[in-house]
Specification:
494 residues; Immunoglobulin-like
Length: 494
């Protein structure tokens, strides 16, 4: 439940604590602050009008774009007609500005506004509601923090933000998942023959199968991965389907920085550049040594920065293919005058998203070597029936916080004991991925890492941002049915 502070309360809180003021929405935006409006809008999906949420910045576009060195001075105005709170995913603000509904930081009431002020870290980030299930209804947007070095490259910035869309309410979706009979809980999305086969014994002996991207050949026994819990009506790229994709005009021999954001609630994709070759240079906003390729996996909530040098002229579809199916969405890069033909919304069979890219990544600025002060195992548990998901056999909100002490080097072993992959996100910290399935890697710096079905990933981070921090699966429906816990620093009251 949100509260609008009186002027006396506002002055007291602003002076006495780091919790920034909640003001009436009609208040004038402070000087040097950007105005971000949480509201509603109408988009067209498959020929039908759909009322969704939106986060619109001062330039009239979704989200925010900050210049190099610019502070995150933002006034979030809630015109959505319902309470909301917005999380600045991947950023490292003080905990009371993180946008999570702790008792100390309640959601913002309809008609109220919240001020934020912190030093952002550069890169490709995003924002989304952490109030109930508003994220599914597109209360999301890009958050791009430019840095001087990237701007000197003189590349055209192209943002590709992905969503899964349903005309049903999130509450209806969740009710279907939690009440479906046993034979209906598994993957309601129509599947290709490849779906659900990522870990079946003997597949490595099938012709051509061992070299397919995304096919995990480790392990033994017959194991079947669960994919795509939710039956969606469409998959969106910048709010549009391939029936009417966004066409972005580019220069001949153009130089592009493609910023891919997986803002979906329950869907993972392969980014397919077609005949183009790109170089991944950042993951979750943090620079990595370049990795060349034309197809890259992207888990829920992750981001990829991909540099692309285009041929002289032409039309260049950039597709996002839904794992385990033939469904796809995307946008089109096109030079002036190039004819754009319709692209089918069904392509070829796509394997499950995996950690094949993750295993090859090397952080440009890795975590400095140091012995761990704390090593903790978190078991990922749950099942499709009943549809509940847990961390260490605990279900949010009835959890035992992991207590941290400032200055500690913390290592977390994430052990997935389920037949579904889980993209795990830590608020308020960037972590280094240091091992996959027991194999040490140099790894990327991230805020979200995929733990595949029956997989094992180790992450490490420095406890340098005291507060209360959520740690959860970024599949919205897994989080809502229990897969979340808290990392809390000593001395921070509950």
């Amino acid at each position: 439940m949100s509260t609008i502070l009186s002027r006396r309360d506002f002055v007291g809180v602003a002076l006495a604590t780091s919790l920034l003021p909640v003001l009436p929405a009609a208040a004038v935006t402070p000087a040097n602050s950007k105005r971000l409006v949480a509201g509603t809008r109408v988009i067209e999906v498959n020929g039908r009008a759909a009322k969704v949420f939106g986060l619109i910045g001062p330039d009239g576009r979704p989200g925010l774009r900050l210049a190099p060195g610019e502070r995150f001075q933002v006034q979030l105005v809630n015109d959505a007609g319902t309470p909301t709170i917005v999380h600045w995913h991947g950023q490292l603000p003080p905990w009371k500005q993180d946008g999570f509904p702790w008792p100390q930081t309640p959601s913002i009431g309809s008609g109220a506004a919240q001020a934020y002020d912190y030093a952002p870290i550069p890169g490709t980030y995003w924002m989304h509601s952490h109030h109930e299930m508003q994220e599914q209804n597109l209360m999301t947007a890009p958050l791009i923090v430019h840095d001087a070095a990237a701007l000197r490259e003189d590349r055209q910035d192209v943002v590709l933000m992905l969503h899964d869309f349903t005309f049903r309410t999130p509450e209806e979706v969740l009710a279907e998942l939690t009440s479906a009979p046993d034979d209906e809980t598994h993957s309601q999305t129509p599947k290709s023959p490849m779906s659900g086969m990522a870990h079946m014994s003997g597949m490595a002996d099938m012709p051509g199968m061992a070299n397919m991207p995304g096919m995990a050949m480790h392990g033994s026994g017959n194991m079947q991965m669960d994919l795509n819990d939710v039956r969606y009506d469409a998959f969106l790229a910048n709010d549009r389907t391939l029936a009417d994709p966004e066409v972005i005009r580019v220069e001949r021999s153009g130089r592009i920085r493609l910023r891919v954001i997986n803002g979906a609630s329950s869907s993972q994709f392969w980014i397919d550049l077609g005949g183009l070759t790109g170089h991944v240079v950042a993951t979750d906003g943090h620079s990595v040594l370049p990795i060349a390729g034309s197809r890259f996996p992207i888990a829920l909530a992750q981001r990829l920065d991909i540099l692309i040098d285009l041929p002289s002229v032409g039309v260049f579809p950039i597709l996002a293919r839904l794992e385990g199916t033939r469904q796809q969405t995307g946008l089109v890069l096109a030079t002036a005058g190039a004819p754009v033909l319709r692209i089918a919304e069904n392509g070829h069979d796509t394997p499950p998203v995996d950690n094949s890219l993750e295993a090859r990544l090397n952080a440009a600025t890795p975590l400095p070597p140091r012995a761990a002060d704390m090593v903790q195992t978190i078991n990922l548990g749950g099942d499709m029936r009943p549809y509940t998901w847990a961390l260490n056999d605990e279900y949010w909100p009835k959890i035992t916080p992991l207590m941290l002490r400032k200055g500690q080097r913390v290592e977390i072993d994430l052990v997935n004991r389920t037949m579904m992959a889980h993209p795990m996100h830590l608020h308020g910290h960037a972590f280094h991925v240091v091992a996959i399935d027991g194999q040490t890697i140099r790894g990327a710096v991230r805020d979200t890492v995929l733990v595949p079905a029956m997989g094992h990933v180790r992450i490490a981070f420095d406890a340098d941002n005291p507060g209360r921090w959520a740690f959860h699966c970024h599949n919205l429906y897994h989080m809502m049915t229990g897969m979340m816990t808290e990392f809390r620093y000593e001395g921070i009251a509950a």
